[in-house]
Design a protein that fits this description.
183 residues; alpha+beta; four-stranded antiparallel sheet
């Protein structure tokens, strides 16, 4: 059981480290959308916060937190391997919980030539199955978070094989522009 949990923990750690390094390299590339302040204000990762540009300076806090999270996980792994008497390996499964929301550390959305970045994830175009827009009305989970989002906004859902990523689009014009860019 220790070996299975250890392999799971190391594989999750390697996967998230790879994704983090990939996003850092993709932040250097040319951004197709948003290119100006108006476009950046019209798309949000969270309903009540405007997105930050996909630059190292703007994403500094997210980069620092993500680095500390990865280093903390490596430290826990090393402590589990080298500390005598550490026999409760099942606790490693609970330590993996911070990774479930680690994609929210970056407040960015950007469309690149070869894919898109949403939070701390880069999704190549070939892995995107579909993109949907859901109108935000009174029955939607984001209704009430921000006045700009209520009744005018859309939730853009990017579907991959196993997971979905969502962003908020504030206006109908921006929804049409994003549809054009994506197609």
């Amino acid at each position: 059981m220790k070996i299975v949990i250890g392999i799971l923990f190391v594989s999750v750690l390697i996967y998230h480290s790879y994704q983090f390094i990939r996003v850092l390299f993709k932040m250097k590339e040319n951004v197709i959308f948003p290119t100006n302040e108006m476009e950046a204000l019209a798309v949000r990762k969270f309903p009540d916060k405007k997105i930050e540009p996909a630059t190292y300076k703007a994403q500094k806090i997210g980069i620092i937190f993500y680095t500390f999270l990865l280093l903390f996980m490596v430290g826990i792994l090393l402590a589990g391997l080298f500390v005598q008497g550490f026999n409760n390996w099942i606790i490693f499964l609970f330590i993996l919980l911070p990774f479930s929301h680690s994609h929210d550390l970056f407040n960015m959305f950007a469309i690149l030539e070869d894919g898109l970045m949403a939070g701390s994830r880069f999704i190549p175009w070939k892995k995107v199955k579909s993109i949907q827009f859901k109108r935000i009305d009174i029955n939607h989970r984001y209704y009430g978070h921000s006045k700009e989002v209520n009744d005018n906004g859309y939730e853009m859902i990017i579907k991959k094989r196993l997971t979905n990523i969502s962003c908020i689009v504030i206006s109908r014009d921006m929804k049409e522009k994003l549809t054009e860019i994506v197609h």
